[in-house]
Specification:
114 residues, 5 helices, globular
C-alpha cells in the first residue's frame, strides 16, 4: 500500500521546508504541506486499511495518482499566495477539492451499499 509511504514523504518534505523557511519566514507553508500531504495521505491510508474493499476500486487508484499530480501545483499556488503574488494555480486547488469529492464518492459507493 503506497498511501503511508507517500504520507511520510510529504511529512519529510514539510519538515525540510519548515527548517529552510524557519530561518526567515513565518512558517505557514510547511504547515500547509504537512496538512495537505501528510494528513491527507495518512488519513486515506488508514481508511483504506480499515475498509480494504474501498481501496480496491478503480476510483481509489485514480484518486491517488491525480492527487499526487495536483498537490505540488497546489503548494506552489499557496506559496505564491502567501508571498503576495498572484495565484496562477487555482486550477490545482479545484482539482484537489474535486478529488476529495471523489474520495467521498468512493467510500459511499463501496461502504454505504453494505
Amino acid at each position: 500500500m503506497l498511501w503511508p509511504r507517500v504520507a511520510l514523504l510529504y511529512l519529510l518534505v514539510g519538515a525540510g521546508v519548515g527548517i529552510v523557511l524557519g530561518i526567515d519566514a513565518d512558517g505557514a507553508r510547511p504547515v500547509q504541506i504537512d496538512l495537505f500531504g501528510w494528513a491527507l495521505f495518512a488519513l486515506a491510508g488508514v481508511v483504506y486499511a480499515v475498509f480494504p474493499q474501498a481501496g480496491l476500486a478503480a476510483l481509489d487508484k485514480i484518486y491517488f495518482w491525480l492527487l499526487n499530480l495536483a498537490l505540488p501545483g497546489t503548494m506552489l499556488a499557496l506559496a505564491h499566495l502567501l508571498t503576495g503574488a498572484a495565484t496562477p494555480g487555482i486550477a490545482q486547488t479545484l482539482i484537489v477539492v474535486a478529488l476529495a469529492a471523489a474520495f467521498s464518492v468512493n467510500l459511499c459507493v463501496n461502504l454505504c451499499a453494505n
